[in-house]
Amino acid sequence: MPAATASNQTALRRLAGALGVLCLVLFLLAIEQRHTVAAWAALREGVGQLRARALDEPPPLPAAPAPNHIVLTGEYAPADEAARTATGALTFTGAQLRFESGESLRTRPLRIALAGEPWAAGHSYAGHLLLPQDSQVELREVTASTADRLCDGAPVNAAALLHLGPTVTLMLFRGQPESHASSDILCGVWSYSAR
Length: 195
Prior knowledge:
By secondary structure, this protein is α+β, with helices and mostly antiparallel strands. It is built from three helices and ten strands. It has two domains: 1-60; 73-194, no CATH class.
């Protein structure tokens, strides 16, 4: 083997070794950064709680988690037997919800509710859907509907959407969900998974 070829191979081996070490260091830094960010968030929340207690103020609200998806869009398959039987798949197109069974809802944003809030007297989203109290539930007003069948023939007035990772849970109401409403405003609850 000529000396030039041997020195080229040696140089390539050294370069490969250096790149391997660099990749390992970058990998370790990436792992460490995730833990550092989580530790910083926990420390910041803890200090905020202590400060609120010391100054006799209400505790600060928890920081919002990073969203997985900003816009709810696309097709979702039924994730439970109730959804499979009642509606089939669900497609989100802008403000419209279209069911495989042919019904559709045109909606507009109403507000974001915390899961601990009541949708009727004595009933909260958290209790009904088994969620943490601080989960966010998107409430939408229904402006046009061909889905009255899903509310036993009554007009659908509101929808509540919970989007957790690939799963969406839909609650439909024949009235406006509020703390003094009767629990019979709930038409049904269906779950869907992203396709």
